């Protein structure tokens, strides 16, 4: 239950992070115009918009990394300490290979 909850939060943060990064206008114009980000500068002003988006990106990226570490270290379901398939194969010695028995070739050449 808690694993699903934290993974859902992680997915929501990642989607928000993607959207915030796409809303930022790069030097070449970026994708901001495609998603309506061109008008966001008129709401806050150009300088406040870039400050807001960069701070939001930093916060979301930090949350994403910290939550991923938290999930991995504490919430991730752990299995029993079982040997892997490779370890199991190495524990059993391989069967001795047997050469096929063939009659020895005759020493006398045919005449």
Q: What would you note in describing this structure?
A:
The protein is an all-alpha fold and 111 residues long. It has a domain at 1-14 and 42-72. It is 58% helix and 0% strand. It has helices spanning 2-23, 40-44, 46-75, 85-91. Helix 1 packs antiparallel against helix 3 (46-75). The chain starts with a helix and ends in a 20-residue tail after the last helix.
**Helix count, DSSP H or I runs of 4 or more residues:** 4
First-to-last CA distance: 85 Å
Mean pLDDT over the residues:
76
What level of helicity do the residues show? Answer: 55-70%
Secondary structure: elements and pairs:
Blueprint: H1 2-23, H2 40-44, H3 46-75, H4 85-91
Helix pairs in contact: 1-3
Task: Provide a quick synopsis of the model.
The protein has four helices and no strands.
Which characteristics define this entry?
111 residues, 4 helices
